[in-house]
Each structure stands twice: as structure tokens, then as C-alpha cells.
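seq:
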Amino acid sequence: MGGIGKTTLARHIFEHALVKEYFHIRVWTTISQTYNVRETLRQVLHQESGNLGSDLSEEDLGEKLYKYLCGRRYIIILDDMWSIEVWDKMRFFFPDYNDGSRVIVTTRLSNLAAELTNSNSIGMRFLDDVCSWSLFSKTVFGGEGFPLQLEEIGKKIVGKCKGLPLSIAVIGGLLAKSELTLEYWERIEKNLSSIVNSENDEYCLRVLKLSYDHLPAYLRPCFLYMGMYGEDQRIEVSELKRLWVSEGFLKPIINKSSKTIAKEYLKELVDRNLILVHELGKLGNIKYCKMHDLVRDLSFQEAEKQRFYYVLGQDCPRGINSQRRIVIPRSTSAMETMSSRARSFICHADTVPELLDFRFLRTLSTYNSEGYLDENVFQMVNLRYLSARFREGFQIPSSISLLWNLHILIVSCWSEHTTAPVEIWKMHQLKHVEFGFPGMYLPDPRSGDSDVMMENLETLKGVIDFNLNEEMVKRIPNIKKLYIEYRSKVMERVKCLSYLQCLSKLESLTCIIGHGSEEYLQSISFPHSLKKLFLVCGKFHLEEILEKIGSLPLLEKLELRYGQFARRSWEIVEGQFPILKYLRLYDCRDMECWTLEGSCLPRLEQLHLWDMASLEEFPSEIGEIPNLKSIELLKCSESMAVSLKKIVEEQEELQGDTSFHVIVN
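struct:
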């Protein structure tokens, strides 16, 4: 049954430090009821090899996967399988050389488990009273003691959860956020008593409904909105929070930005166990989330009851004109035209219907939107959020500037030389502008437009050959996140990166320098506000900028790709990188020696070295960093691995164990 802990157990195995060390390849993929073998094979191949295989057939993908896995010890998790047909089609693509490789399948269907060939099955059991109480206590009070006056009623509540982990976690999450009074807990116990005779998934859904009924009013729209995502879909948190903002779900709080409020709402739903953390970022932020199938079912059912949104099927239903939010799933063959006064329209299907009424639209997210912008831009004056992908050769019309209420603009076009309209500089309400791969050119404002000031703009991503100068700095004074790429050298712009230091609120910078454009980096200067830095350096001599980077007082995350060490060594001295938590070096050439002086890198938690073939030895001081959690080496020299092993052994002798785990591939 659902909620008994199958996926949780598999996830603990998958993320265990020893498992990461033992297996060369680790892949997790979710099958679900509406499975697609070709797409599953493509995901498995892409996760490890980076190969998309978009144009390959199912058979070709399987053959490519088989060859890739050969000679490597792998663990593959196939989560939430509902049909033996999936296994019958995929099992031949997993080589078996008795080398310790493993495939783990989770399923609700006991008969399916019995049909898996050459398998050992573990039947998940309900938690006993002791384990149920332990989980409940930890969920409600963490490591603190359980109040004596609530212990008796607490045990009654746990008993009504029937040993089902999901029910215990969700009810525990509810009580952790509620009044710690006997009267309130008795009311919860009474409500649980009325549903205790329900069966299996129906019982769990009714327990979850109780948790939903006690959600604060401000969280309910955010929770209901989650149901529009597909079953087992991995949800990008940054996109989710932007949608919450554009839909108007957030209750304004004095001196708090909408991003901060959205982050707090998400955390509260996670704390209540209504949203699952799927993947964390390098600094511990939630990058992707998911919903348990049963929790998603509840969200979907409640949204349907309240007509919160409508997920469109094959036919256009009567009354769609009154729907506030319309979602078209990827699998839907959408109709050609649709009349609706919707406030929100999200289409994942390849075929986008023509909307006849745009006047009320606040949120628009589609794959192919050329017709909307060309012909209907005059109607879309209420639009707050626009996310669209265009066909190759399409140019965004200058009339987009008429969307004067637009806050978020995310567009991509599969064309190498697409130029965004200069009129974007007149859209003063914009907070987030993102040009998806392969990026776009953004012209300077016209010389006569002296009043151009984008005070609300906080994020600008995907701009090619950005002309950063004194005037531009004045136009984007509050920018916090900047993603720029330089592909060609323009002599009058080669010193433009010196103006970065004037962006006093910049926190995250990604700067990609193509081969032949390295001169841009010679004048680069960073603002002291910077927290995250990702540089792709071409053939630039890294020694020229590493001292500048090391002195940044707030830098927590640093990734360097390519570049060269002309002196073949890197010395980090005491006082540099005072709060750096994550460091990744990727194919930085000619670095043969790395030394650390004094107590540098005191806060470092994660160190990743990829393709650093010239580096011969690990600095022994690395083992003395108190907060270090993980070291990962990929495609590094044999001598590097040996020196790291020596550091680990020394730490084990001194402390009996190492505080960090090591992955070498």
C-alpha cells in the first residue's frame, strides 16, 4: 500500500555513504502508472552519462545503456512500478556479470514482486507500537522530551494511525505546527476515530484530509496548486515559488520580500510532511521537491471540489469559460481553439490551443506561443508571468513592451543568434528576466531613453555579450542574480566586467567565457556582496583572479571550469575563502601542486575535483578542516587517490573515524 515507507527506505539506501563509495554508477528513476519505457531509458542514460539520446529508438537507447553499464558496478532504483511489462522490457538492458551490481524495484503490488525474475523481495510491514511512537515523537518534538500531560492522548493518536508511516508523519507534522494543548489534541484524536475503519489507501487519504482541514488558510492555495503537477513529477522549487508569487498566493508581510515569504511557505509545507524534499542544492537549499502519490491525490481531489483549477482532458468541457486556472498535461491532444476567461493557463502539451479571451490572464506558460505574442499582446495587459519556448527563427515582437504589468519573463528560442527586443528596457515592472538555452543578445537601450531604470529587476539570465558599463550599472541597481556569456571579443567591451564591482547587491554570478574571449577576464572585479560564483574560463590564467576571489568575504559557493595554472600551482593562504562551503574544480589544466597555509577554508563542507589529471597530490591539511562532509574525485590521477587514501587513514588513526565520506571514480 501507499505510505508504508518503500521509497523512503530505497532513498536511504541510495544516499548512504557506503553505497556511494561502492557503486560506480547510481541512478534513480520513477516509473509510475503511466509509464513510458523509452523515456525511462533516456532518463537513466542521461543521469549518469549526460547523453540525452533524444532521437534514439527504445531499442537503441537500451543498447547504448547496456554498453555504458558494462564493466561498471551500478545500482539502479526503479521506483513505484505498477506493471511487470516494464521490467520485462528493461531487464535485458542491465548487464549481469556477478560484480555486485543491483537493481532495486519498489512497488505496491505484491503479485508484481513475485513475478520479478531472480529477485529477493522485502515485504514492508506496518510499524510496531515502539517504532510508531518513536517516529511520532521525533516528528512533533524533534529531540526534545514529550510533555507528560500529552503523552496519553499522544499514544491514542499514534494508535489510530495503524502503524502507517505516512499517516504518522503527516499527523505529527500537523501537531508540530499547532497548539500544544490537551483540548486540541483530543479534538484531533476524535476526528481520527471517525475514520479508523477505512481500508488501506482510502484510510490514508482520510487521515491526510484531516491534516489539510487544519492547514492555515494562507497555505491552502499553495498546497492545492501542487496537485496540477504530474504523478511522481520532480518539481523545480524556484519555478514553483515564482508561480505562487504570480498567482497572488502570498500574504504580504512588512519588510519581507515575496521570495522570502514563498521560501517560508514551502518550508512549512515540508515540515508538515505534505511536500517531500527530492534534491538539495550544494548549500542545503531545497532545489527540487515532490509529493507522495496519496498526498497528490488529496491535493487534486480538493482542488477539483473547489474548482481551484481544471486539468483538461481530450475534450473541451462545458463551463470551461468560468474556470480560473486551466492546465493541459503533456499527454493531452489539445483542441484548436478554446474560449476561456482563465486567470492562469499552463500548457505542457506540444499542441497549444488558441485562446479567444486574454483579458483576465495573469499567468501564461506554454511551449509554442508565437501566435499569442504576435496577435494578442494588446489584450494581455494583466499578465504577470510569461514562460514560453519558441520555434527556431522566431523573434520576440517589440510590442511585448505593452505587457506593462509583467513581473516574470522566461523565454527561449532554439536559434543561435536571437536578439531580444530593445523595448524590454521599457518594462519597468520586470523582476525576473531569463533567456533559456542557447541565450539571447540584449541590445543597449536607445541613446534617447535616458529615463530607463529597471529598479525592480533582481534576476537577469542568459544574456550573450552583455555590455556592462557605467550607464548599465545605473539601470539595474538592484540586480541579485546575473548569468552572462561572452562568445565574441568586442574591443570596446573587453573591460566591461570591471563594472561588476559596482553591482552592490549582486549575490550570484555565472560568467561563461568562450575560447578567444579570455581578455574579458583580465579586468574582472567582484562586488563584496557575492555569495555564489561560477566561472567558465576558457584558457585564461587562473592565478590572475584567484586572489580576488579568495578575498570575497561572503562567498559560499565557487565553481571553476577550464582555465590554466601558468605557474602550475595554487597556494591558498590564511584568511582566504573565510566562509566558503562548496568548492568544485573542473578540468583546470596544468595544476600540479596545491598547498594550503594556516587555517584557510575553515567552513568548507564539500570538495569536488573533476578531470584534474595534472594534480599529483592532495594537500594533507584538507583532512584537518572541521566542517568537511564530502570529497569527490572523478577522472583524477592515481597518485591523487593514493594521497587521499593516506589522509583518510591518518584521520582514522587520530580520531577513530573520518568526519567526511569519499567518492573516487
